[in-house]
Design a protein that fits this description.
By secondary structure, the protein is of the alpha+beta class. The chain has one domain. The chain contains three helices and four strands. A four-stranded mixed β-sheet has the order 1-2-3-4. The protein starts with a helix and ends in a 14-residue tail after the last helix.
């Protein structure tokens, strides 16, 4: 993903849903600046939390350099508020069909 992101300048992400643990994980590679990359990671982690209906979700982001030299992490264990859920419903699924909720 790092190589693709470095070449095309786009964000590449995927999620993973582990039903048995009630956990969703998000992996992001981006050429965005760190502040923007962290904000996008926060959104993706919250979206995964919403999409899979899990008790906790976490994410890892790295820069688009081929070696992925910079890492940011996020973890959430809070229940989403009804307001947050309504906002998240307005977005297209950034993960597509990856790991559809079982």
């Amino acid at each position: 993903m790092c190589v693709h992101s470095a070449k095309d300048g786009q964000e590449h992400q995927f999620s993973h849903f582990q039903k048995s643990r009630g956990t969703a994980s998000v992996y992001l590679v981006s050429s965005l600046g760190r502040e923007e990359r962290v904000k996008y990671l926060e959104f993706l982690v919250m979206y995964a939390h919403f999409k899979y209906g899990v008790a906790q979700s976490f994410g890892v982001a790295t820069d688009a350099g081929v070696s992925g030299r910079s890492y940011d992490f996020m973890l959430t264990r809070k229940q989403l508020t009804p307001e947050a859920i309504e906002v998240l419903k307005t977005f297209d699924d950034p993960f597509g069909d990856s790991n559809e909720r079982l």
